[in-house]
Design goal:
Layout lengths: L1 E3 L5 H7 L2 E4 L26 E3 L1 E2 L2 H13 L20 H5 L4 E4 L6 H16 L3 E4 L5 H12 L5 H8 L7 H5 L10 H24 L12 E3 L19 H6 L3 E3 L4 E3 L15 H8 L9 E3 L1
Helix pairs in contact: 5-8
Protein name: Amd2p
Family: Belongs to the amidase family.
GO molecular function, one term: hydrolase activity
């Protein structure tokens, strides 16, 4: 089990070619789990959650099912009533192909290629693809950072000082910590905007019903975990990760295939809608400086 407030389940799973599942808040007990937040802050703003990293989807399902069957909402105030559903899979239950929303990028050429191959396998299996995007993406990344910075990083800096462990160069260079703390009115404004963005996303998801063959909203979204292979000590976040923490949506990382950087060459559009930091990293991308075989 691991915790995730900005990708700490999903990105390690991606980097190691295994499965990582971030549930929505309230599904897995979180009471009294220690993190780098001041006591109490972990229950406000962007919520950290616990979830499995495993070698198979079956193992992820087994862990979440076992937790649900203990009825944790009876003893953990952070849990909501969420018994394990006794139902078939979406495809078997509705007897229809799945409608899968796909967010394509922008991504570096090998990731673009492997996503295209995955999409072909999906359509070959009889399922439907619907082109979608991460609406309000840069704003959500910015808002997530502001919520992370509410206390100015003081608790984290003080915690690091007890062991003389410095903040990483990436954290400092990207201006995450230390920083100016927010006041209570600012935090209220951040929380209000977060709810507005959640409402916008609920509407966007429902509106996808107008683009599917079934007339129902898409069942799931498919996208990369990162727009590029990150450079060591320069990577801070991905436009495909933090937004699901802000929205409190469940998210799963899985390995689609292994790709060979020497043969996967795909033309891609210039970076857009992924945030300033990610755009800078994207423009530095050079496949020749990375390993020749990477899992995605």
């Amino acid at each position: 089990m691991a915790t995730d407030i900005g990708g700490s389940i999903r990105f390690p799973a991606y980097a190691n070619g295994v499965y990582g599942f971030k549930p929505s808040s309230g599904r897995v007990p979180y009471y009294n789990i220690k993190g780098y937040w001041p006591p109490g802050e972990e229950y406000n703003g962007v919520l950290c959650v616990a979830g499995p990293i495993a070698v198979s989807m079956r193992d992820c399902e087994l862990i979440i099912k076992a937790i649900a069957e203990t009825e944790p909402w009876k003893y953990d105030p952070t849990c909501i009533y969420s018994p394990w559903p006794k139902q078939k899979t979406l495809a078997a239950d509705d007897k229809r192909p799945l409608s899968i929303g796909v967010v394509r990028g922008p991504t570096a050429e090998p990731i673009t290629s492997i996503l295209a191959e995955a999409c072909k396998k999906i359509t070959d299996a009889g399922h439907e693809l619907v082109e979608m995007e991460i609406i309000n993406g840069p704003e959500m990344l910015d808002l997530t950072t502001k919520i992370f910075q509410v206390d100015g990083g003081k608790f984290l800096v003080d915690l690091c000082s007890t062991t003389n462990e410095p903040l990483t160069k990436t954290v400092i260079d990207n201006g995450l910590y230390p920083c100016e703390p927010a006041d209570l009115s600012q935090f209220f404004a951040y929380s209000h905007r977060r709810i507005e963005l959640q409402k916008a996303w609920a509407e966007y998801w429902e509106q996808s019903a107008g683009t599917t063959a079934s007339g129902k909203p898409v069942d799931i979204l498919l996208m990369p975990i990162s727009p590029f292979v990150p450079r060591v000590r320069e990577f801070l976040s991905s436009p495909f990760i933090n937004v699901w923490n802000l929205l409190d949506y469940p998210a799963l990382t899985f390995t689609a295939d292994k790709i060979n950087l020497s043969k996967h060459k795909v033309e891609i559009p210039p970076p857009s809608n992924i945030g300033e930091t990610n755009s800078e990293q994207y423009c530095k991308y050079d496949s020749s400086s990375n390993k020749k075989e990477i899992s995605h």
